[in-house]
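In the previous lecture we treated proteins in isolation. Real proteins rarely work alone, and many bind small molecules. This record shows how such a complex is specified: first the sequence, then the SMILES for pyridoxal-5'-phosphate.
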Amino acid sequence: MFSDGLKKLINDNLLRIIRDRESGSTASRIIIDGEEYINFSSNDYLGLADHPLIIEAAKRAIDKYGFGAGASRLLSGGTGLHRELEKMIAEFKGTDSALLFNSGYTANISAIPAIADEGDVIFSDELNHASIVDGCRLSKAKKVIYKHGDINHLSELIKKENGNKKVVITDTVFSMDGDIAPLKDIYELCCFLNSKLSTPNSILLYIDDAHGTGVLGKGHGALAHFNIKPEPFITQMGTFSKALGSYGAFIAAQKDVIDWLINTARGFIYSTALPACVIAASIEALRILEGEPALVEKLWQNRERLFKGIKDLGLDTLLSQTPIIPVVVGDVGTTIKFSKHLIKKHIYAPAIRPPTVKIPRIRFTVTAAHTEKDIDKLLEALSTA
Ligand SMILES: Cc1ncc(COP(=O)(O)O)c(C=O)c1O
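The predicted 3D structure, ligand included, written as tokens:
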């Protein structure tokens, strides 16, 4: 039934296959089919996924709460740990409330339709993550796409459209390009437009800080990076699955937004809560992030070393400004060959192809767990490719 579609994917070099690993942590090493590689494909930016304190915290929670949560939060799935983590996240992000979601994907596909409804207009960056795209598809609001990071285009479009509420949605760090959204400009535009309206805060800003949390703003995320106050019109989404080395996601916002999500976000209401051991791991990860600023500093030192080395080789890194560094080497076939060359050199960094991105690329992510030697090995492999 699907064989023609699959054949076409094979012919176009676009067939995706799953490669499972045999190793534990993924931050800097990965074992696949018995071979060890230096891994440059993990979003575990701070190398926390196998931190002994996090593992201990998860084990203690299993001993106390068992494994499965058994029900959704609105039934009996939540624990004191869920509450504690929400309180910590609200403080960490400077909001008065927060709500946990089972993943970043679930948060976006649940919160966006709850926040933007019929009669509203969503303005979404053209390179926003697929989970935002899907959240927009599920929303009954009108969708308007603005050119990537283009504040003038966004401003023109917002002024043209009428809607009860206007919701600007952007990734803070774009996950395939590694650039940072012009958040200060977007924020100032929202402030300006809100100041002209009779209904306060009817221009909302929804940011997906999945790759900003733990990375930007000394770990606090994109608002801290740009020195932006977490105003009531801003809703911040973030994940525990990347720099925090755990799993799950959150929305941090004003209390009425959170109360609204508790009552209307379908992925929150109709899904089993995260297990307490996952929450315990996230709590511990947040404590480590706040207590060990050297981790974020190391991440950025590594990023600068790798980025400078790649630039010195004259390679195209698109607009990368973060530990996500795409390298464009040619069409899909060339990109796959390039990735295979790296594999031979014991470096793991898969090719990213359409439809995930329009321009094929190798996406390198560097973490605090890499050594200078790891980075130099990658640079050497790139120079011989
Ligand atoms: C920008 C962005 N938002 C959301 C998600 C989804 O997060 P999760 O992996 O926790 O579902 C991702 C992860 O791939 C992402 O890169």
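Summary for your notes: The two ends are 40 Å apart (CA to CA). The first helix runs from residue 3 to 11.
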